């Protein structure tokens, strides 16, 4: 497989002549609201799970797995379509579409009275997640100066984990205490199963409406405008970001890159070209690694993981909030490191750290050391993940492809991410029942160690280089 190799070129990207931090961070924050809604909608199901399962009388592992993973069908579809939609209508309009889908689907999921309706609107919400996971980091990368790009794209991951924590806090706050020893029939007849889970899903409608209004204000991606031949509009936006000299240098660099690869948006066939194919495969592998490291199991199946460790229903909802707080804290720390220490170092650090934590958690289950020991190991795994694979994978995917094919190539990588996530989420209840929680953690640990070997051999450093420099370096290295 062709690999995505580091550049040996000097870092000479034109930096802004002044630092309009408020403007750049504001438009990046608006785009990152897609990540916030993505995080909330993705994780809210973890706290609602015991209650909608009781309401819909779900008992078989296959139905439970389908209810918990069906949104991933929409995620895959939205991610795959996001590149074509973003190329056709622009990054900003695609973000607006995301916001509208989030607002509608979340409310209608919450007030579904039939299981089929619940599944349909969860899939529709998944489409919104897929679009946001594609376009939000892509848009931020395309408006960011090179020196800030890691932090700004990581802002999308920060917003995502804020959304995750918000969902966990909302779930914890809405859910009423369940009496110890309550029967499934009593839970199904209680307030949580009749109304509580509905409000957990519906709560996202308000921030989704705010995202919709804010997305109408932000500028279009200057790189998309140049791809469409709208040089004057692109130059004005770049000048607002970094000044006239910065805009002139960026326009010249982007134009040269486009002329070298041909103007106009690329077609799907061009992703198979020798200079592109290796990077697409590397992006797919990174996306799959981010999911198959197993961390999302700790969010989407927290009930099973912590119940197996001896926690009751009321305690595990609080434990879920702790996981979200740890996720947020270490994502903030990662934002200070991603441009300082580089992408490759953090990815290696994360793979090894998550893998070791999974090994320890598996050993705790195997030896019967439940309770706080399992909680600490899962929190360590989340901390390592939040500092590395979670934000850095999105940064790499958003910057490793040439301008002309970036939209479509990111779609392929993100679609692969959601495919991997579906396989992870759907198979966990089955694997857990067949082999036990300890062996499942050992499996995820082995995947993390294999991932560290892949990163060491195939992933190079991109920190501090402009998108055009990364493109030129990869071409010089043969793709």
Q: How would you describe this protein?
A:
- The longest helix has 36 residues, at 21-56.
- Residues 1-13 have low confidence and may be disordered.
- This protein is globular.
- The N and C termini lie close together (10 Å).
- 78% of the residues lie in helices and 0% in strands.
- It is mostly helical and 479 residues long.
- It is built from 22 helices and no strands.
- The chain has helices at 21-56, 61-69, 71-89, 91-110, 115-143, 149-174, 184-189, 191-202, 205-215, 222-227, 231-242, 244-261, 274-292, 295-300, 302-308, 313-337, 343-367, 372-386, 389-399, 406-435, 437-458, 467-476.
- Helix 4 packs antiparallel against helix 8 and helix 6 (149-174) packs across helix 19.
- It has a single domain (21-476), classed as MFS general substrate transporter like domains (Growth Hormone, Chain: A, Up-down Bundle).
């Amino acid at each position: 497989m062709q690999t995505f190799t580091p550049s040996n070129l000097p870092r000479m990207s034109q930096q802004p002549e002044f630092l309009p931090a408020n403007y750049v961070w504001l438009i990046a924050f608006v785009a990152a609201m897609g990540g916030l809604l993505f995080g909330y909608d993705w994780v809210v199901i973890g706290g609602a799970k015991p209650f909608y399962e009781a309401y819909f009388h779900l008992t078989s592992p296959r139905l439970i797995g389908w209810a918990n993973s069906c949104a991933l069908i929409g995620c895959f579809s939205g991610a795959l379509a996001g590149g074509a939609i973003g190329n056709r209508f622009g990054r900003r309009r695609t973000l607006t579409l995301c916001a509208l889908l989030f607002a509608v689907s979340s409310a209608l999921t919450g007030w579904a009275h039939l299981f089929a309706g619940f599944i349909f609107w969860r899939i529709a919400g998944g489409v919104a997640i897929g679009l946001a996971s594609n376009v939000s980091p892509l848009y931020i990368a395309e408006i960011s100066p090179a020196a800030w790009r890691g932090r700004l794209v990581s802002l999308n991951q920060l917003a995502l984990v804020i959304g995750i924590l918000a969902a966990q806090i909302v779930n914890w706050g809405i859910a009423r205490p369940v009496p110890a020893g309550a029967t499934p029939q009593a839970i199904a007849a209680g307030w949580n199963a009749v109304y509580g889970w509905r409000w957990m899903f519906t709560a996202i409608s308000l921030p989704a409406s705010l995202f919709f209004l804010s997305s109408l204000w932000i500028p279009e991606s200057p790189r998309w405008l140049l791809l469409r031949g709208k040089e004057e509009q692109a130059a004005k936006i770049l000048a607002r970001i970094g000044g006239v000299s910065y805009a002139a240098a960026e326009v010249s660099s982007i134009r040269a890159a486009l002329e070298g690869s041909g103007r106009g948006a690329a077609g799907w066939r061009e992703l198979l070209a020798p200079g592109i194919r290796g990077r697409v495969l590397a992006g797919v592998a990174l996306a799959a690694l981010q999911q198959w490291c197993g961390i999302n199991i700790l969010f989407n199946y927290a009930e099973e993981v912590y119940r197996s460790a001896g926690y009751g229903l009321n305690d595990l909802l609080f434990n879920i909030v702790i996981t979200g707080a740890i996720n947020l804290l270490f994502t903030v720390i990662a934002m200070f490191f991603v441009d300082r220490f580089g992408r490759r170092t953090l990815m290696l650090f994360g793979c090894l750290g998550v893998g070791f934590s999974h090994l320890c958690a598996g050993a705790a289950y195997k030896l019967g050391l439940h309770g706080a020991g399992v909680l600490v190991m899962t929190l360590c795994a989340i901390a390592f993940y939040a500092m590395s694979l979670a934000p850095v994978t999105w940064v790499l995917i958003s910057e490793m492809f040439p301008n002309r094919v970036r939209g479509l190539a990111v779609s392929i990588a993100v679609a692969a991410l959601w495919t991997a996530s579906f396989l992870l989420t759907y198979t966990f209840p089955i694997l857990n029942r067949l082999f036990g929680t300890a062996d499942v953690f050992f499996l995820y640990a082995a995947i993390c160690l294999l991932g560290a070997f892949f990163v060491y051999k195939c992933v190079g450093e991109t920190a501090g280089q402009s998108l055009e420099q990364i493109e030129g370096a990869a071409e010089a290295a043969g793709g």
